[in-house]
Amino acid sequence: MKKYDVLIIGAGIIGCSLAYELAKYDLEIAVLEKTSYVASGATKANSAMLHEGLSTKPGTLRAKFVKNSRKLLTEVMDKLHVPYKEGIGLITVAFNEQELELLKKQRDDALENGLDARILSKEETLKLEPNINSGIIGAFYSKSVSVIGPYELCIALAENASYNKTDFYFNEEVISVEKYQNRVIKVKTKQNEYQAKIYINAAGLYSDTVASFVEDIDFRIQPRKGEYFLYDKKYGSTVSHVISVLGNGKSKGMIVLPTIHGNLLAGSSAVSIDDKEDKGTTKETLDMIYQEAISKMIPSLSRTEGVITCFAGLRASEVNEDYIIGKAKTVKNFINVAGIQSPGLSSCIAIARYVIELCKQTQEVELWNIKNNYIAENPPYKRIVELNEDEANDLIRKNADYGEIICRCELVTKGEIIDAIHSIIPATSIDAIKRKLRCGMGRCQGGFCLERIIKIIHEETGIDMVEIRKDCVGSNYLIKPSKGGDKSHD
Amino acid sequence: MTNYDIVIIGGGPAGMASAISACKNKDSKILLIERDQRLGGILNQCIHNGFGLQYFKEELTGPSYAQRFIELVKEKNIEVLLNTMVIDVSKEKIVTYLSPEKGMKSITAKAIIFSMGCRERTREALTIPGDRVAGIYTAGTAQYLLNIEGYMPGKEVVILGSGDIGLIMARRLTLEGAKVKAVFEIMDHPGGLRRNIVQCLEDYDIPLFLSHTVIKIIGKNRVEAVEVAEVDANKQIIESTKKIYSCDTLLLSVGLLPEIELFSKLNIEMDSCTKGPIINNFMETTLPKIYACGNVAYVHDLVDIVSFEGKIAGEDALKTYGSRDYYTVNSSKNITMVIPQRLVKNEYTYTIRYRVNKDYRKTRLILKNERGEVVYRANLNNLSSAEMHSFVLLENKISGNKLNLELEENLDEK
Ligand SMILES: Cc1cc2nc3c(=O)[nH]c(=O)nc-3n(C[C@H](O)[C@H](O)[C@H](O)COP(=O)(O)OP(=O)(O)OC[C@H]3O[C@@H](n4cnc5c(N)ncnc54)[C@H](O)[C@@H]3O)c2cc1C
Ligand SMILES: Cc1cc2nc3c(=O)[nH]c(=O)nc-3n(C[C@H](O)[C@H](O)[C@H](O)COP(=O)(O)OP(=O)(O)OC[C@H]3O[C@@H](n4cnc5c(N)ncnc54)[C@H](O)[C@@H]3O)c2cc1C
User: Under a CB-based contact definition with an 8 Å cutoff, are residues B253 and B162 in contact?
Assistant: First the structure.
């Protein structure tokens, strides 16, 4: 059995940032992920904001790692050719004097933390954002907030790690570990066993469960659900900043923002729940978000019109509300990176670099030499429909599949889907192709392209049509060929 | 860039009918663009009977209705691009398309006819809360999977919405061996045609629950159940009626929306009732020489009317005309939509089509002008909300410029 230098459990933004940073070294690295693709957990459903800790408590790890995150992350995103909206800025609106006072305090805190911030008058605010409710009396403004593409970034990090020879294993859920003396010697999944010198637990919501395979732990992850509305691109220019309102006890601040793809994202709630698998949306919460955030900030937005989807993400919050980053107490070679709630996206690179220092300290791996043939950049990537006619035609002449649109909302071609299926991290589930290419993320939500993509995956991989899944085992779409059905596909 | 007289986008019944009528003039250069591998549009997957009673005076299946037009398109040597998707249309009438054979290419047109059909409303458009799992299909997707790909999308099925496609799929799935547990409809009357209720549900003992809706989707990887509740007259959920139905599939037949995205940046004026563009009696939008016909203009229940309208659009696209003066037609009071919204003056007769908000036994339709004077009035019996209705308006009866259509309440209830 191959023995890796470092094995990472979980392919969210934290696991993938770790792989990306570790892959710079001349080491053998593996990542185990229980779902079918990267970015399946909190990394796919969040507010997508890159900020430097506008509301993190000073003195916490959360505050420590988010410092300078903007510079760190933008450097990485540039290298990997990941799109983002740099410094679009945050506007938090106040509807009364009391709220304005709170915002002034926020401004003072932000200034103290070295961030730019100021208070805007009502007129200044409405000039910047004419669609905001004219009932406001003023606003807090800070330019130091960007919007990123969380799963695009995660995929790019993972792909770069793969170019640099990291092994990714999907549909592999770690279910136990084996120890010998004061070391973990292997981890087990349902089907396989994996060995490494150092193990890192980046299992998000389940980071407490995974940590408890090793020893008795004194932390606990309590999921906190955030629900969202996503509006059609037609509404993407309704606002040009991140707009937020102050919380009211039931919720923290909620936001409306333009995503990097030009949709409008609005949310989110913050409700503690017990079931880590409960990613469902609820009518009550969606109503609350609409009433207290969306319609309050932007009265012209409808509760249903233009909404292309609603979804929920679970924050992996530790009960003491801070990150748990450090070596396990009773073994030498197991590191927990747990409770990475907001602003985990912003801080991912800083966290990864810190964890590498912890890895070095274990002295389980001796040599930390930079790879000779390290590949620093991912190949730049442009969607076919974004190319000019000559560029597109060059490609289509060589391969006609680049001329065949499959996802008609997001305009993705068959050639791009086939590329994704065979890419360095193969996208062979519907969710994987969705995250990689946005197929099915548009206004028809896959109504048209689902069946076509199922067929392309079948043709390219030989996976039986009825075995093609949305994501994990059990999420199959088709039951069996129909009575009159064409069985020649098999 | 190649120049065309008329470019028609979408090769369903609307697009084919307009192409056929536009090539009456032999010299005109016409192009019909279809993104699928064949012409026919949505008809190709409607293998049931019920097409053509008005147009051909006989009952045909969807594909055979389409075939009659496909033959004519061939016969007339109309230039057709299949497997070709139009990805952009500009104000200057530059049409950009993409295809495996031709690559990415732009052409110009003197007139453009949009005939892209419609798409189905999704779970998301209704914002049904719950889990996001496999096993939720629009009825049309399920129909495609079954009829074109030959695969069963589920075993135990609940259908939300009693539109015709959902009803037809209830029967199809039952015949294929699935258990269709129930059809739920939020309105207090069915959305589909009466004959489909009888032939697709009642004949197979599939229960239809009116004033009911799905309020939550439950499941881990695939749908495991749905929560259903009755609604009151204001469509508010009655808490005490909540009930869980186990199933592995939820089919949505909750309406269609015109496929308008391609021209959304052209600033064509839209109608919030039809969700399509405002059109005149020649199917022309508010931009001259840009037409919309078939389901992209408004959702039709009969393909025959689509074909009639396609023909009108094709003929008008060929004509040269000066500036046009209009009467406008709006609606209120019990009328949910009216078509066309603008009437070109000096045309003698107009066909006005409309839908009503519920079923009426005895009522009166009234068209008034801006001064409140009655321009047209008709007493009507048994007016159904499931179908579109029409009447012919003579121009010499019209006074004023701004017309408004309304419907009285049920007269025998007063
Ligand atoms: C509602 C919400 C809003 C947020 N907004 C922001 C924001 O605006 N800005 C910001 O910076 N941050 C934000 N965050 C935080 C950010 O999204 C998270 O901090 C970050 O995504 C956490 O990444 P992760 O890799 O730790 O977890 P995840 O992305 O959850 O990844 C963990 C992975 O581990 C896998 N896994 C679990 N158990 C096992 C096992 N036993 N074996 C193998 N694999 C396993 C999971 O399948 C998953 O893929 C938000 C989070 C939420 C939920
Ligand atoms: C399931 C179902 C059952 C029905 N049952 C009946 C019935 O029993 N009797 C009856 O009379 N009517 C019935 N109808 C109604 C009738 O079929 C439709 O009204 C009619 O087909 C609409 O024609 P269309 O040309 O507007 O649209 P479509 O038939 O949808 O054609 C639109 C075409 O445009 C193409 N297209 C779209 N965008 C582009 C683009 N960007 N570039 C290139 N091509 C594009 C599409 O591929 C499609 O081929 C039914 C409809 C459905 C959906």
Answer: yes
Supply the CATH classification number for the domain B122-254.
Answer: 3.50.50.60
What CATH superfamily classification does B2-119+257-324 receive?
A: FAD/NAD(P)-binding domain (3.50.50.60)
Q: Is B288 on the interface with A (CB under 8 A)?
A: no
* Same structural domain, A255 and A395: no
Encode burial over B146-156: b for 16+ CB neighbours within 10 A, e otherwise: bbebbbbbbeb
**Same domain, yes or no, for A395 and A335?**
no
Which strands, in side-by-side order, build the sheet including A84-85? A49-51, A145-148, A84-85
Minimal-distance CA residue of chain A relative to B264: A234
- Span B329-413: which CATH code? 2.60.40
Instruction: Determine, for residues B151 and A397 on separate chains, whether the beta-carbon distance falls below 8 Å.
Output: no
Give the tens place of pLDDT for each residue, A330-354.
999 999 999 999 899 999 999 999 9
Q: Compute the distance between CA of residue B316 and CA of residue A277 in angstroms, rounded to an integer.
A: 58
**Quick one: pLDDT at residue A53?**
72
Chain A neighbors of B130, CB-CB under 8 A: 280-282
* pTM score of the predicted model: 0.90
The answer to whether the CB atoms of B103 and A397 lie below 8 A apart is yes
Query: What residue segments make up the domains of chain B, in order of their start?
Result: 2-119+257-324, 122-254, 329-413
Looking at all shown ligands, the one closest to residue A146's CA atom is: 1
Where residue B294 falls (left for φ over 0; alpha for ψ -120 to 50; beta otherwise) is left
Mean of per-residue pLDDT scores for chain B: 91
Structure tokens at A214: 């090793």
Separation of alpha carbons A167 and B361, rounded Å = 71
Quick check: B107 contacting A, CB < 8 Å?
Answer: no
**Statement to judge: residues A195 and A290 lie in one domain:** no
Which residues on chain B are in Cβ contact (under 8 Å) with A485?
146, 149-152
Beta strands in A44-134 (DSSP E): 49-51, 84-85, 90-94, 118-121
Instruction: Please report, for the domain that includes residue A446, its CATH number.
Output: 1.10.10
**pLDDT for residue A445:** 74
Cβ-defined contact of A389 to B99 (cutoff 8 Å): no
Which residues, numbered 120 to 139 in chain A, qualify as contacts with chain B under a Cβ-Cβ cut-off of 8 Å?
none
Say whether B99 and A283 touch across the interface (CB within 8 A). Answer: no
For chain A, positions 136-195, list CB contacts with chain B under 8 A: none
Could you check whether the bond before residue A317 is cis, i.e. omega within 30 degrees of 0?
Answer: no
Ligand 1 center to A475 CA (angstroms): 21
Q: List, in order, residues 6 or more apart from A459 with CB less than 8 Å away.
A: none
A79: in domain:
no
B402 bridge partner residues = B328
**CB A56 within 8 Å of CB A264:** no
**Is the same domain home to A102 and A194?**
no
